[in-house]
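RETRY 2/3 - previous attempt timed out on the joint model. Re-submitting the same 848-residue input unchanged.
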Amino acid sequence: MMSDTNYLTTDFTLRSWFLTTDHKRIAILYFASLIVFFFIGGAAATLIRIELATPQADLVSSDVYNRLFTMHGIIMVWFFLIPSIPNTLGNFIVPLMIGARDLAFPRLNLMSWYIFMLGGCTTLFAIFAGGVDTGWTFYTPFSTLYSNSYVIVAAAGVFIAGFSSILTGLNFIVTIHRLRAPGLTWYRLPLFLWSLYATSVILVLATPVLAITLLLMATERFFGVGIFDPRIGGDPLLFQHLFWFYSHPAVYIMILPGMGVINELISCFSRKQVFGYKFVAWCSLAIAAVGFLVWGHHMFVSGQSLVASLVFSFMSFIVAVPSAIKVFNWTATLHKGSIHFDAPMLYALGFIGLFTVGGLTGLFLACLAYDVHATDTYFVVAHFHYIMVGGMVTAYFGGLHYWWPKITGRLYSEYWARTAAVLIFFGFNLTFFPQFILGAEGMPRRYHVYPPEFQVWNVLSSGGATILAVAYLMPLFYLGYSAFFGKRAPANPWDAPGLEWQTSSPPPEHNFTTQPVVTRDPYQYNEAFQAEPQNA
Amino acid sequence: MWRQWIPFWHPGLSPHSGDVDLLFTGLLIASALVVGLLFFLLTLFCARYRAGNQTDRNHRVKKSWHWEVSWTAASFVCFLGLFAWGASVFFQIYRTQIDEHDVFVVAKQWMWKTQHPGGQAEIDALHIPVKRPIRLVMASQDVIHSFYIPALRLKHDVVPGRYQDLEIEIDKPGHYHLFCAEYCGTDHSGMIGEVVAMEPADFSNWLTQQAPSSPLASEGGQLFRELGCSGCHGGGGTVRAPPLEGVYGKPVPLSDGTTVIADDRYIRDSILMPRSQVVASYQPVMPSFEGKVSEDQLLRLVIYIKSLAGHP
Ligand code: HEM
Ligand SMILES: [Cu+2]
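RETRY 2/3 succeeded.
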């Protein structure tokens, strides 16, 4: 607004997009790719839910069904959730929040997008060439010796995308350490950055283990070297240990950034600083650290030693403590605030409810005796969807609406945004709550056909999925419209104190015309609930 | 009775399923309290402190640490309780005694084969007498499967390459679902069967009706000769091998100085990987039978060796 060129209008050529090193443009590249992956993954989910509306097989064959849920899992986990908030919102906002011109390694940032796309296309190739039927967990020896599908190609895609994760993590860590504006001490960092920092640590430390695991799997499948198959001297449980050593921390990669976004939203829309800032900040790091010690809770019935199960159960309860603390702090933040119910806040409130249900049912699963019954049933499916979809995707949508005016320089229709937020909340619960009941009654997951007594809850779930699908499509239209025809946004439409709101919307190519200097803690509001900018 | 009013509660099905249901109820109540409290506070705050509503916003909580400490401590203590409760029931569930009525379960893509010691074999079905603990000895022929009886709140993975014991007991006659809970390929959802619990008298009738072609032990004995085991272990041969009479269930001294109990797992491993555990004072000369015997045959050999020790 203030200057006439911004990062979107500096250059219009394709080349200027595909060879850009501007973190904001790279964020947009990621954003566009993630939308595509989200809807491919969503299409698979739709087919799954249609098939499950009746107990018999009617829409697809078992082989196709197995390929559908595998493709859904792989795409949603590695090509949507893991990169979602870090690579789009994080990429865009991190340098703005710390008052920097860009990330520490702008070219590495672009390279990480290309690597991600290479991985994504490899996986898509595997899917469209014939598919993979191992489930996203690639359990051996099924994946190494029994599956007749494109296991190696799909795993190669995931392997490649891992490097993109590692580079992003590295880039964020160095950026947050080195490029903070003068005066921006660690305890003045917005909590979104603390959580992205914790996420980055996990990305850097855990992803290599996934790479090694997939390599070992490929070695066994290609060369018949006995690593995981007992018939040639391997150990099938070794694979599970390695896989979950990565994949449990990875679930925190998928939720910590969401928690980070929620801090920003709750604070801004209740016009108050986040309650217990330091506790919340350190909780992120505690989750990242303890999250490395609980992987065995995926293996309580696998035949691992009972004592190991005991320890992993205990650690799982421990890791839930910092999550609980965060929920209490968000609630306490509302106390004596001045609460506005704009669309981002509706998403944030929805997040708190859904994440809490997901976290509490995590305790059911961490509880040894109940997990014996619930593991590998729909109870687990419901649990992780409450956290990953109810939590993370909701937070992503909340953050997207919150920073949308900054990213595009346009305002969206508040009416449609609120409608979508409410619809998503109800559609989500209708889709996934019945799955807890299915699980408690014993319906195993990954079942193409099922005994007829489970139909009622499956029909409800499929019905809810219809609402959810519509609700998820809505933003595509009203946000898409806003990007081109929306009203121009001012620099600080929400009157928020963070540095990212002190520059114009959309920001100029190098973010700030003068170097900001930070003089205050984040989240400061005066008696009249007006923001006191961090760099005043 | 009050228990009947609790959903998902099927009282009296087995000694442990009731404990698991009680645990589930406990978890549900705890969660309901937390969700209720949270929902109450969220609505209260959202209503009272909505923008524009005139209300007292002075005296905000400034020092937060004692709140933090209290709710951290409270969560921790509750979690500790739930952990201990869940763990104690877990150890009950997975305890197996060695001397029960054994049933052998072989899992393979995509069926459950069960066999009674008398030779009665079933596919995707398992008949058992009520009110009596049954020890299942489970093996997988190919990939990982998982033996799951929802009515008993009980499951265990069946991992290829090892035997898995699991004790089941059903106290009420009836038909119950048996599911494969670990994804195992194309027809995973078709790998389901039925557990039929019968009164002891009906069960013995059933056993006799199923006209055992021959007991598993004698089939095992035949294999023992066909495969040439008896050549060395039979005592008459030129090669010295440990005699197997009476060995089952007893401690066996190994050449590395340790001692193991000769259970199913040990016998199976000795057939497939003879050099990993060599009996003290013998030469490691036994060939491996890996790839030469199927899980079904292995089971018969194990049962035969067991029968040599006077076990059923
Ligand atoms: C409050 C903390 C949490 C606890 C105590 C917890 C506990 C558990 C346990 C014990 C399991 C294993 C269940 C089983 O396989 O039987 C599990 C599964 C799972 N959890 Fe959580 N969880 C928590 C938070 C999360 C978060 C934050 C996420 C993701 C963002 C998550 C995602 C998953 C996923 C994806 C699975 C299933 C993986 C699969 O088998 O495909 N959980 N959780
Ligand atoms: Cu986990």
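Chain A touches chain B through 82 residues (CB under 8 Å). Closing ticket.
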